[in-house]
Amino acid sequence: MTEEKRIGGWIQTYSGQAFWPLDPRPEEIHIQDIAHALSLISRYCGQCRIFYPVAQHCVLVAHTVPRPLALEGLMHDGSEAYISDIPTPVKTYLPDYKRTEAKIEEAIAQKYNLIWPWPSEVKLADHIVFKTECRDILARSFDVDEFVSKDTPILEEKIIPWSSDKAEFMFQLHFDYLQNHEDISELNKYVFSQP
What we know:
By secondary structure, the protein is mainly α. The chain has one domain: Orthogonal Bundle (Hypothetical protein af1432), CATH 1.10.3210.10. Helix content is 46%, strand content 2%. It is built from 9 helices and 2 strands. The chain has a two-stranded antiparallel sheet. It is globular, with a radius of gyration of 17 Å. It starts with 10 loop residues before the first strand and ends with a helix.
């Protein structure tokens, strides 16, 4: 019996599995791989005042979307666990990357029974968190209206960056809560508190 041919090469994930970024399959998606990788990837290509993990950003989006979409909010950047984060000004010029990103997002959505493409409420929550990150994480203020609507609100709470260990734990904890249909608002005091 011959092995099935896959598209492109594969990467080894944190859990020791093989994953083909150009040929993603739901059964090869594992939450521990996503939580771990996103906890080690910094937002904004690392161009922040302090390390700020993508996993923390995803947790904040999960708290910002309407409750029925919290799992979509948590997982909206899950593809970055397998292909890293590329800044939007560069990503715009990489249509192949965007197609790969979409295929991985769709595989994640299938694995966890999520709505995909991500609903507009997830995009709005992403923008709200982005606008707040501009206030709290980046080196200087700039006119964010160039990137998001001027009517986009901002979170009242100040974002205090987490360590990668805390980000991984909190991402996994939120996933577990949401998979068990528990209310993540119980976790607010841990999300919006000191690291």
